[in-house]
């Protein structure tokens, strides 16, 4: 091969080398750009994680405060009931009627207070037995229709429609209960 032929090939190879060098430079630039974007994404993820952790801690504090002070208004309203009970105890001896009237007013105040906070009394006597609201202490013979609540020993209460304590009641088993016992013995 002649020198002239070699020279003609060199510029071609040199051009390819320059193109390859430019492609390498472009790839290096693209790689640097991608590494920078990756680093930025990592920082964004860390920032977002730190922000989420702060939100979680703040929410946890707020929930704890809400739990600790949830009954503050209720407790404050009950202070009127305490005041009425203290006045009832201050009634001089021998004045039972005033004491009884004071206790009645205190009970009315108590029921009004709990009513303002979504609590209601379950009145059971004379109603059909409902296992969702009543707890039967016993079934007793009675002229009332079978399954009717004939006596309430302890009132039940609902809080915002949800039972928090069932009414403790006696339930009629009707007059058939006496006949059943007679038949069982005979």
Q: Could you characterize what this model shows?
A:
Helices cover 62% and strands 17% of the residues. It has three domains: 68 residues; 47 residues; 67 residues, Head domain of nucleotide exchange factor GrpE (Nucleotide Exchange Factor Grpe, Chain A, domain 2). The protein is an alpha+beta fold and 186 residues long. Helix 2 packs antiparallel against helix 3.
Give descriptors for this structure.
62% helix; three-stranded mixed beta sheet; alpha+beta; disordered C terminus; single chain; 3 domains; Nucleotide Exchange Factor Grpe, Chain A, domain 2
* Strand portion: 15-25%
C-alpha Rg (nearest Å): 42 Å
H/E series: HHHEEEEEEH
- Label the structural class: alpha+beta
The total beta strand count reads 6
Which sheet architecture does the biggest sheet show? 3 strands, antiparallel
What share of residues is helical?
A: 55-70%
Q: Summed up, what is this model?
A:
The protein is of the alpha+beta class. 62% of the residues lie in helices and 17% in strands. The strands form two sheets. Strands 1-4-5 form a three-stranded antiparallel β-sheet. Strands 2-6-3 form a three-stranded mixed β-sheet, with no helix packed on it.
Q: How are the elements arranged and paired?
A:
Layout: H1 3-69, H2 72-89, H3 96-116, E1 119-122, E2 134-140, E3 149-154, E4 156-159, E5 162-165, E6 167-172, H4 176-185
Parallel strand pairs: 2-6
Antiparallel strand pairs: 1-4, 3-6, 4-5
């Amino acid at each position: 091969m002649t020198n002239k032929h070699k020279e003609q090939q060199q510029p071609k190879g040199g051009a390819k080398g320059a193109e390859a060098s430019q492609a390498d430079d472009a790839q290096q630039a693209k790689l640097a750009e991608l590494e920078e974007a990756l680093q930025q994404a990592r920082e964004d993820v860390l920032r977002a994680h730190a922000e989420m952790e702060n939100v979680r801690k703040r929410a946890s504090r707020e929930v704890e405060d809400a739990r600790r002070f949830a009954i503050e208004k209720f407790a404050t309203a009950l202070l009127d009931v305490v005041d009425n009970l203290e006045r009832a105890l201050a009634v001089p001896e021998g004045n039972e009627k005033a004491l009884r009237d004071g206790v009645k007013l205190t009970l009315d105040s108590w029921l009004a207070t709990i009513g303002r906070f979504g609590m209601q009394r379950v009145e059971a006597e004379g109603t059909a037995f409902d296992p969702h609201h009543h707890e039967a202490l016993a079934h007793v013979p009675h002229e009332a229709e079978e399954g009717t609540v004939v006596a309430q020993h302890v009132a039940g209460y609902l809080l915002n429609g949800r039972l928090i304590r069932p009414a403790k009641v006696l339930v009629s088993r009707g007059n058939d209960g006496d006949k059943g016992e007679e038949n069982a013995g005979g």
